[in-house]
Structures are given as C-alpha cells and as structure tokens.
C-alpha cells in the first residue's frame, strides 16, 4: 500500500530547516527511484520529497521540480544546455584524472557516462572539498551553462561542469552528468513529476489545515489535485509560473493564477483513429457532430498578444514564428475589428498561390525551418483554421465547439488562398459523409476530422480525445493509422544500396517504462534521395552500444545503433504478435511483443520529438482494434 508520509528525520537530517535544500537530498531520491520499478511507489517517493521541501524550504520547490523534470525552462523557450558528448567526456576525464580514451572505453562497457563518472570519482581522493551543492545552486549553474555562447563558451561550460563534479558527494555526480546529457533515465517521466507535485500539494495543504486525510477521501482529493495540476500544466506549461502560484494561492485557486495566456503555447488536442465512417456513426450516435477536411500540412497554433504581436507554435510547442513570417504579415488583414488577442488552432498548408490548389506535405517540407525572409519565400501557405481557444483575454477551452466555431467565424475574415476556415459539413448520414470524405481526398487532404459540436465538445489540451475522430484515406487500405516510429538501428545496404543503410530497425516508445521497443524492420518506401539523406543524418548519431533503454531481441541485432533522434511516419498492412519484436510486450501477450507487417516509410516527422512517437499502449490499442486480429498470422513478415 502506498503510504504518504514525510521523510524520516534521518533522511532530512542532511539539512536543517531554513537552509537551502542540498542537491544530495534530491540525488538520493533519484537513486531510490532508479532502483524502483513500481510507478505508484515512484510517485510516492517524489511526492514525499516535494512535501518535505514544502514544509521546510518552500522556495526550493521550484528548483526541485525543475531538476526532477530535468527542465530548465519551458520547451517553447528553446533553452538548450549546448553541451556535446565530447565536452562531457573531457570534463569527466579531467575531474577524475583519467584519459579521455579510458573514459570512452568504460562508457562502452557500462553504457552510461553518469555511472562511469560516479565509479571513477569514488576512487579519487579529494583533500579540500568545495561547499556542498544545493538544488537551487544546481539550477543556477545549469542555467548559466545554457546562457554561455560565443567563442570560448565550450571551455567555460566544461569548467562549470568540472566545478560541479568536483563538489559532488555520494551519487550526485551520476545525476549531474545525466542532467547535462538531457536524460535522467531513472524511470521518472514528466507526467509522474506532475502527479507527485499534485499529491505533495494536497497533503501539504491538509497538513497545514490540520486535516487527516484517509481512505476514499484521500484518494478523491489526490485525484482532484492531479486533474487540476495536469490541466494547468497543459494551459501554462511553465513551472516558473505554476510552482510559485501553487505555493501562494493553493491548489484550488491555482487555475486563476496559471492558465491559458496568449504568447504561451497550449498542448494541442489530438484525435483518435477510427476504422471508418460506420465506427464514427456508432461512437457519435447521440448529439451533433461536424466533419472537417483533415489538411495535410503542419499544425500552427497562432497567437496574437495584446498590442498585435504574433507568435506561431508547432504541434510540439516549439516557436515557429520565424519560419512563417508570411503568416504573421498576412494575418492582420484577416482579423475582424474589435479582436485584440487570440489563440487560433490551424493547419498551415502549402498551396499553389495562383490556383489555390492544395499541395502535398512534401512541398511544405521544402520550406526553410527558421529565420525565413518574407520576400524570398517560394512555397506559399494557406492557413486553414479550425478552432479558436482564446479571444480578447478570455479562455474558450470550456465552451463547446459549436460556440468556439461561431466565434472563430465572427472574429476572422476569409482571404482566399491565404486564410480560410477548415471546410466543414455537419451532415450526419453515411452517404453524405462518404461523399465529403471522397471530396477531401480528391482535394489533396488526408481524410476527415469528425468532432462533437455540443455535448462533450470542450477543447481538451494534450488529450488524444474520443471527441475528435480521424478518418484517413489510408484506413480504407488496412491498418487504422500510420505510426510514428524511432529508428534505433540500421543494417548496411547491399547491391544498389551499398554505401547507405539498406534497412532500419524501428521502435515505438513506452512512456511508462521510458524505453524504446522494437516494432519492425523496414526497407520499403525510401526514395534514393531519402536513403542518402537518412544515411547522412543518422550516421552522425551512431552509438557504439544499444542504450540500456532499447528493448529488442538479439536476433534482430543491427549493424549500427543510433541514439533516439528522429521520428518517421510509417504505414503498414497490419499488426501481428511477433516472436522477435517486443513492442507493447505485456500489454496484449505476456511474453511476446507486437510487430508491424509490411511497413512502408512515408516521411520524417520533424514536428514530433522522440517521446511523441507512437506509444506501446497505442500499438496495443491498434492491434486490439484490428477487425481481423484473429486472422493475422502470428509471424514476423518484415521486409
Ligand atoms: P498524424 O498527423 O500522424 O495523424 P498526430 O498525432 O500529429 O498524428 P492526429 O491527432 O492524428 O495528430 O491528427 C491531428 C492533426 O491533424 C493535427 O495535429 C493537425 O495538424 C491536423 N489537422 C488537419 N486538419 C485538421 C482539422 N480540421 N482539425 C484538427 N486537426 C487537423
């Protein structure tokens, strides 16, 4: 049973009330978490640590949360530590008095620089110990490292890393190294950090009020706390706002102080795949719904701040403003009088500027990714807007889609081939929807998005919601949806493919276990140019060993392994239980995984990070939803 208690005096004894929280306190918690695999217990350990900090040194809650989430700043700020592996290895070598070569050899053996650093430091004698590291000091130094730029910045970064490593005690060095490498690998996903923060807040508030929460009442409060924190984080993904507001105003008033704001990206709502129109009609048997074209471009969340400044964010909350100066220049003409701020949800789609014909995604992908110059843009885009989330300072998330759409249409004016509303039909019978689907495909779209209008029709940030269903043209050909997979290894090409990789090993992502599980080998769908480009980009990301967080069978061993760095969209005929692949192992079959059959490469998804790859749970869901699951032979028909 999960016990929510404060840390025992022994564990908290390494620091006194009012003193800055030592980093060692956090590192010890990480070490316990790393040794634990049960999610409930991991959550409890993190929640207890946060709760102790709230009781003894609340100003350290923010640095502790940043360290646990391993995030210095929200994603949209694009803050990067900018430390390459070679600098890290040098810093470790110099701190431990070992050669770079011997550190590299140990990393080959151990698979993790953090562990190597820790083991090497244990042997080292330090006579004059610097002051112990604190949680807030760590965050400060990491921020300074991120801010260093220019000529000698790599040297300065290395010196800062060394200073931290020299001051490290016990297992601290291991987590310092992993923080700097961007991956903690202790099995603590950011979603767990959020849940732990919610639990810590609920319990601390009860402590303060002298309330003893137990049984069902405790569970209800914890669940409500989780709901609040997750909602707030979707709307305002910034710990620097959330944590102080939580401490000052409490959980139940948090949303009033940390919510949707123009200028800060909200995690977009996503759709569930369906097998076709009849499934849509079954699911939406009561209540009105609308069908919209599913445009094949790039999601663009467009913000206008009070004063007229425009910001454009990607599906991943990255700042795409400098990629689309043409949208920012065009938009003022499309805004109705009286509109002072907004957040639009839209798709930027390449179009032929004279005819307005929609171009395939591949055309859009040739545009410059950053710092584009309006005058030299060749590929024109049209913004197809489908939702309005915020208007004149007010959040619309809780309003039903019918109302949001009405406000969208009132607040903007269509400009042909530049700014249009997503084409929609509210028809509800099979024939009319089928006709609309065909039309969308003829019009170069991916299919339809079907959305509830009145009931259960709020905007649900970051959710893959059942209130949005997608019907793609590909569904008509077999599998219900394409998958977004991570290339984790490759096999050298032969014959015509000599000199490039001939086939790749792909994996889905298990976000619970934080590991990549192999799901297919793929060698089809690549043009010669794609093969050359992928070889060029991926050969720079080869690692000597399969990282410990790759799960695959020995029989699949590729010629080279890659760090997880790209996401590929892949279509397959169907899914089957596999004797060799380990995707979703334990979810459908206790000992076997699932594989994609006859996979075909479609494109690289630059707008997705590796953690956004199709999850193991989604693979299991797709497998279970397959109409023909029973008929699919349990084999592994890779290319
Ligand atoms: P994929 O693009 O691979 O289908 P995804 O995970 O990026 O997957 P989905 O939930 O499958 O997203 O589909 C939603 C995406 O479709 C949105 O992110 C958006 O970019 C695009 N889109 C195009 N037209 C619409 C529309 N009318 N309504 C909502 N999203 C749309």
From TrEMBL:
Taxonomic classification: Eukaryota, Haptista, Haptophyta, Prymnesiophyceae, Prymnesiales
Known catalytic reactions: ATP + (deoxyribonucleotide)n-3'-hydroxyl + 5'-phospho-(deoxyribonucleotide)m = (deoxyribonucleotide)n+m + AMP + diphosphate
Boundaries of every ATP-dependent DNA ligase family profile domain copy: 374-510
GO biological-process terms attached to the record: cell division; DNA biosynthetic process; DNA recombination; DNA repair; lagging strand elongation
UniProt key word Cell division: yes
Origin: domain of life: Eukaryota
Residues of the full protein shown: 210 to 848 of 849
Gene Ontology molecular function terms on file: ATP binding; DNA binding; DNA ligase (ATP) activity
Protein name according to UniProt: DNA ligase
Keyword annotations from UniProtKB, A to Z: ATP-binding, Cell cycle, Cell division, DNA damage, DNA recombination, DNA repair, DNA replication, Ligase, Nucleotide-binding, Nucleus
Cellular localization per UniProt: Nucleus
Family the UniProt entry places it in: Belongs to the ATP-dependent DNA ligase family.
Protein EC: 6.5.1.1
Annotated GO CC locations: mitochondrion; nucleus
